[in-house]
Amino acid sequence: MEQTDLLLQGVAVVADILIKELNHISKETSNVKRKKERKKRSIWTREWILRREKLGASDNFLREVRMEDKATYKNHLRLNGEQFDYLLQKVTTKIQRADTVMRAALTAKIKLQIAMRYLATGDSFPSLESSFRVPKSTISKFLPEVLDAIYEGLEEYIKIPKTTEEWTNISRVFDNRWNFPGCCGALDGKHVNIQQPIDSGSDFFNYKGYFSTVLLALVDGDYCFTYIDVGSQGRLNDASIFSNSILKEKLEDGTLNFPSWGVILGDEAFPLKQYLMKPYSRRLTLTAEEKTFNYRLSRARRIVENAFGIMVSKFRIYRTPIYLCPDKVDKIVKATCALHNWLMKTAMHYYAPVGTMDTDDRPGLWRQEPSSNYIAHVVNQGSNHPSRLAEQRRINYKNYFIGEGSVPWQSSRIF
């Protein structure tokens, strides 16, 4: 029995050694096989991608239409040739990479063309890949830095006023164009539709039933953004976003030199303050005087609606949900706001020609674009209690609008 037991133990030891040796040989064989497979990979880029210079949109279609069909070129990138060159000069140092031993780097020109086409249409990365012959994984990597470069290059066009003179100039436009003296801007918030962020729960889920981030913007009398707050979660309302914004902080600590006589116009979602006027609640039975005030405020405040509307009609990335993480969506919003301001201030005749904006007699052409819920208005989900001084200022405006500040057509607009 003892010999048998010893024999069995010996067999077990030998078997164990053999199994370990076989496992080791198997691993070594697998490693060698993987190395051989890696060595076989001699082509790092698909052949049709390598024909970019001969057949890609950048060096073919866009070059042709820039010379032969300027309208098509502008429609494709939302910029004419000269504007594209100006913007390219602004961003090149930020986005151009050096060539390597393995391959030539993508040019800043093609990166900017792809970014502008993406903003103009909202095309998917596979669609951009097939047009420009640039891998979609590459587009995904460089797009955020191009968006940052656009915003940084055009940041001078989107700065908030910091002197009383600058606020006064804005007020003068509102008074002359919209008959609302003392107005230094119109404030509103808009939802930007996005895919649900990972592990976000319901943080970005808004009252309309989809996921979004919020763009809060202050707009001057020329349809330009003077302040933007991007990236707030969709579940938040205008009042809470504004209460936590840098704009509110700076208005109240005096660092913006906001004039004591000035006001900003908001809708019912915002709190009534001495510097922030809002309409009388439509949930109440309003007097003719209160309806008149609401009409006059709405008439002047629709300039912010027009600014959003024009931007969305030009940059159709907003027409569909944006399938990127919130950080990248914020970059899109900042870049398009900067582009909007730049084009409004330097080429309004082409970017927003006559008829684009609302007038008293007819709606702007941007409203004829197919309606979309992908950038939607933010509503209030609570109440606020105005101070006595804020309420008195609203009463003063109400009395002014039915007295010396009345306009001939206002009565017909409230009944």
TrEMBL record:
Pfam families: DDE_Tnp_4. Keywords: Hydrolase, Metal-binding, Nuclease, Nucleus. Residues 187-341 form the DDE Tnp4 domain. The keyword Oxidoreductase does not apply. One of its GO terms (molecular function) is hydrolase activity. It is found in: Nucleus. InterPro entries: HARBI1-like, HARBI1_dom. It comes from the Eukaryota. Its main location: nucleus. Its cofactor is a divalent metal cation. GO terms for cellular component: nucleus. PANTHER family: NUCLEASE HARBI1-LIKE PROTEIN (PTHR22930:SF269), PTHR22930. Belongs to the HARBI1 family. This is DDE Tnp4 domain-containing protein.
